[in-house]
Amino acid sequence: MNFALNLSEYFLMIEDHVHCTPKFISVIYWALSAWRERPWVILEFSSLSFSGKVLHTSDLSRLTTLLLLFPKDTPTHMLLSEFRLLLAQHVSIRLRSVFHPMGHYAAPEATCFPVEKEMVFGEPDNPTANVFTDMKTISDAIPQYAYVLNQECYFTLEPLRGNYLTVILERPQKVIRIEVLTGSHQQGLYQLEQGQVELGYDLLAHSEDCARYALLGPLVEGNLDQKVFYEEDTMEQLSCI
To answer: Three-state DSSP class for 53?
Structure first.
């Protein structure tokens, strides 16, 4: 890690016996581009305990200092989680998984956190909600079309910086994954060039808004597909997206 300090802007960890999906570098490149102006410490592109972690090389000297404070047999991925917390990233940022264990991969017996199994989500299940926006509507499309799980779509003309589309859940929900798709399936046309998804808490009375929001992540090439992580000691539920 110390050797890599002046070689690049980012540092990617990959261990042995790991399979890389096609175009994994492009996936990471576009994610880093979307996150460039936002604060983060570690971006995760795998459910593996070590591989697929991306850091800023500017943080490596602090990380190596932390690692050297502990006995050499301390599981490194435990310290990675602590390092993220020390630099004020309180939840994991798990993006599209592009690294997977090969068939004969085996985690060391001493590891405290074995390889996570990829969660099977099945079909999406959107809770009942109302949708509001300040963007101009085209034709007879209504904002609700952006949320319902059918072939309907919401069309808008020339969205501007600061425009919003807010989903107000009928009652607070514990959400585990959020996926946002923009543009058409044909040739990737009409995708939003920029945008971000925020999670809202504490619905305001007689309002179409929440009292506070936390960033989930920016759109990457017009889309977002991200797990929602929670602090272990909280059961806080979402009211707005």
So the answer is: strand
Quote the pTM value: 0.70
Residue with tokens 């301390």: 74
3-state SS of the chain is CCCCCCCCCEEEECCCCEEECCCHHHHHHHHHHHHCCCCCCEEECCCCCCCCEEEEHHHHHHHHHHHCCCCCCCCHHHHHHHHHHHCCCCCCCECCCCEEECCCCCCCCCCCCCCCCCCCCCCCCCCCEEEEECCCECCCCCHHHHCCCCCCCCCECCCCCCCCEEEEEEEEECCCEEEECCCCCCCCCCCCCCCEEEEEEEECCCCCCEEEEEEEEECECCEEEEECCCCCCCCCCEEEC
Each residue's pLDDT tens digit, 37-71: 889 999 999 888 788 999 999 999 999 999 889 88
